[in-house]
Amino acid sequence: MSGADGRARRFLRAWDDVRGRSGRRVVDLVRHQVAVVRAGAVLARSTATGEIERSVARTQMAEVEHEGDAARGELVRVLRRVLATPVDREDLFRISRSIDDVLDHLRDYVRETDLFGPEDLGFAVEPLQAVIDGLDELETAVLKMIEDPGSVTVAVLATRKACSRVRQLYQTRLTELFTGPLEMDTLRGRELLSRLDAVGRRLGEAADALADAMLKRSH
């Protein structure tokens, strides 16, 4: 690449930044990452309802995970190139990493249901729906980062509320499990519930990272 070509490309990137295109692109990439994770959560819920066989879901989840890795990789590449971001670059990395952690735990949940899960996964339906609701609220919060930053906090709080719901359901379902006889399925259910609790905690960390980022931006 000639020196003139390099200067031209840098100028175009700077012009994009001035017009806000880079910020919107970053937001779109974060939203895409959240959307991929949501697809993973819907797939996990489908195993709990019996709509999809567990071995099939495990195969499909591997594809979702691949798409999630690609989405995160593209976001990281863009963050390293753009001159300006809608919020602190470090916070965006943190948000993206937490979102990726949510997908990792969903992947493990689906894999574990196939490997040793109990026959009845009905106990997981509500927690997974709460995860989906939380991801929807997180996507809303991300969308508002540029256009309506003042309302991001409301969506973040809604995400946190969904995460609290996951935690409450985890505790309730765990209590229900241990009121019956202590069998192998009881222990299997406990392991899967713990995995879903981890999903909720990682989602909460993503919401916290976004809240921190918006607080820095406001100062």
From TrEMBL:
Gene3D superfamilies according to UniProt: Phosphate transport system protein phou homolog 2, domain 2
InterPro entries: PhoU-like_sf, Put_Phosphate_transp_reg, UPF0111_domain
Domain of life assignment: Bacteria
Family: Belongs to the UPF0111 family.
UniProt-listed PANTHER family: UPF0111 PROTEIN YKAA (PTHR37298:SF1)
Protein name: DUF47 family protein
Species in which this protein is naturally found: Streptosporangium roseum (strain ATCC 12428 / DSM 43021 / JCM 3005 / KCTC 9067 / NCIMB 10171 / NRRL 2505 / NI 9100)
